[in-house]
Amino acid sequence: MRKALIILLLIPLVSCSSFFKKKSERVLARVHDNYLYESDIKGLVPKGSTTTDSINIIKGYIDNWVKNQLLVYQAKNYLPASQLDFTDQLTEYENSLIIYAYENALVGQKLDTVITDEEIESYYNANLNNFLLKENIVKLQYVKLPLTSRQIPQVRKLLAANDPVSLTRLSELCEKQAADYFLDSDEWISFSDVLKDIPLKSYNDADFLKANRNIEYQDSTFIYIMRIRDFQIKDNVSPLSYEKSRIRNIILNKRKIELINNMYRDVYKAAEKKNDFEIF
Q1: Domain of 180: which CATH number?
Q2: pLDDT higher for 52 or 17?
Q3: Where would you tag: which of 68, 112, 224, 227 has the fewest CB atoms within 10 A of its CB?
Q4: Shortest CA distance to 58 belongs to which of 1, 15, 9?
Q5: pLDDT for position 22
Q6: What is the spatial distance between Cα 259 and Cα 275, in angstroms, rounded to a whole number?
Q7: What is d(CA 197, CA 184) in angstroms, rounded to the nearest whole number?
Q8: Does residue 14 lie within any of the structural domains?
Q9: Are 60 and 39 in contact (CB under 8 A)?
Q10: Where are the strands (E) in 168-272, listed by range?
Q11: pLDDT one-digit tens code per residue, 91-120
Q12: pTM (whole model) above 0.90
């Protein structure tokens, strides 16, 4: 029902004489001898779209289709025939798409995606110079509370304790009282990302991190209580735990390239044995 309504609302966009060029299908637009049919926009509108959004999406598509068809028509009449022959380019593009699809299917079926911690550590140790930090990183815990909160002393105490029981109590407290918090002191995070959430004033981040571990800052509304558990300065070797995900992707990509290269080699060798090709 909605689709029929949309099409009816779009009727003024096309001429009545072209609307039933095919008995079984409604025409939405025409540019010279090219027609845009209702079936051409099937699936264009996302499910759940409002009537207004649906009309705008379809109208925008039709407008773009008309503009593109007009430009193509203009170009065909302007360019010489020699510049309109794309047979070789289309064949090459089709071949590249076929090869790409085959490579993806091969990778999906045969790529070994299991990577052990030992493999990651071995790669890390063999390539330390490739893992220099490009930014300062920290391990920290912080809690953001309203200045009016009565829990500020308790948060200070629990953060300072830094034991499993205190951490559990702190997490429960933050869930109910904190405006924001981060308690996973095992995770390395970018210090620049920290500064986006905590409005600290630091003219030199490296010097600040070296000089401060227990930090409190307040603005007109909130108090920020932060405990820096560890830090690493830019240009030093990045911690393994910070690079694990990246190394995993590197190893996977190397395996993928090796798998594809082996496939090319095997195809070539098999064809060579069967005399399936000749080079003159």
Answers
A1: 3.10.50
A2: 52
A3: 112
A4: 9
A5: 55
A6: 24
A7: 16
A8: yes
A9: no
A10: 180-182, 189-190, 214-218, 222-232
A11: 999 999 999 999 999 999 999 999 999 999
A12: no
